[in-house]
Design goal:
mainly alpha
Length: about 150
Amino acid sequence: MQNSLITQVQLGRQYAKEWPMRKELAPIFAEYRVIKATELSLTVMPILAIFTVFFQTSQLGAQYLPQAIAAALFFLSLPVQGLLWLGKRCDTPLNPSLNSWYNELYHKMVANGYDAPSTSRKPRYRELAKLLSDMFNKMDKAFTKEQF
């Protein structure tokens, strides 16, 4: 599915909100680290961009304004890159081994009382995020401890 850049960024923002930020998932999935880095860069990079422009133009003069703007744009693009990666990742189908793990986890959850609509044949990372989030929020601690 082909998305525009703005749609991809919006998908990434939404996916970052949907993904369960649990330390148990950090060694398995890159989402935890990417979301943390993106959140940090969303707060730090605009400040760094403004500081870069101010410092370079005040210390080196107005003739360095183009270089200062280029550096500022680079800093501002870093959080966007994280959101683009997350937007692409949420629409990516799970690989075969992760797909079988997803189905196994879903069936275990249903056997333990999880009430949800049936899964699609080719789940994507977005469905995995919802399933993991439901597992951590709706299932008991013993079940989640057994899975990780």
